[in-house]
Design goal:
Layout (H helix, E strand, L loop, with lengths): L13 E9 L3 H11 L4 H12 L5 E2 L23 E2 L2 H21 L6 E10 L3 E6 L5 E6 L2 E9 L22 H8 L9
Antiparallel strand pairs: 1-7, 2-3, 4-7, 5-6
């Protein structure tokens, strides 16, 4: 059993999926994982399908050197207007997501309630090759693979707020720390106040 960067609470129903030494660009995977983290699973799957069909764009927020500006990138709430359509990395992340969903189904989780609680991408050791340069020299020609891990959890049901009897709750009169401390202590003796 492999270790994940985050170990969710055993009481919370969840499903996991991970891939190691995947031959897709780390920087692309990082931007995709950053964008889909926190999304409901159904929405994330639709987003990844749209990226593959060039209907949606992956906004690039960290690795932006040399990446052109795109009008489509302004549609997302992320900062900047840089983005790309990394097809190969998107297909790999989509496969991992579908694997995590299948793992959730076998555990008996409801797909409609699942959301991506954890999406992380790490650099894997580079695949080293060589290229031939001028004047008989040899240069490095390395790939930048990635480790990707996803954790899905079920959305928690909202809890109804209790009725406040005293009127001193969130919407009522604000209680300072000093006032709360005074209420906690029982007055003893007949001193002046």
């Amino acid at each position: 059993m492999t270790r994940y960067a985050v170990e969710p609470d055993a009481a919370v129903p969840h499903s996991k999926s991970r891939g190691s030494h995947l031959r897709v660009h780390y920087k692309h995977c990082r931007e995709i994982a950053h964008h889909i983290k926190g999304m409901p699973v159904v929405k994330a799957q639709k987003f990844l399908d749209d990226v593959l069909a060039f209907k949606a764009i992956v906004p690039f927020t960290r690795h932006t050197g040399g990446i052109g500006r795109k009008a489509m990138a302004k549609q997302s709430k992320s900062a900047g207007d840089k983005g790309r359509w990394p097809v190969k990395a998107t297909a790999v992340v989509k496969d991992l997501l579908s694997n995590a969903v299948a793992n959730g189904e076998t555990k008996g989780l409801e797909i409609e309630k699942l959301f991506i609680s954890h999406a992380q991408c790490n650099r894997a050791p580079p695949g080293r090759r060589r290229t031939y340069r001028a004047h008989g020299r040899i240069g490095k020609y390395a790939s930048q693979p990635a480790h990707i891990e996803l954790i899905l959890e079920e959305k928690k049901e909202g809890v109804e707020k209790a009725e406040d009897v005293d009127g001193e709750g969130a919407r009522g009169k604000k209680i300072t720390r000093k006032m709360a401390a005074k209420k906690r202590f029982v007055k003893i003796g007949g001193g002046t106040d």
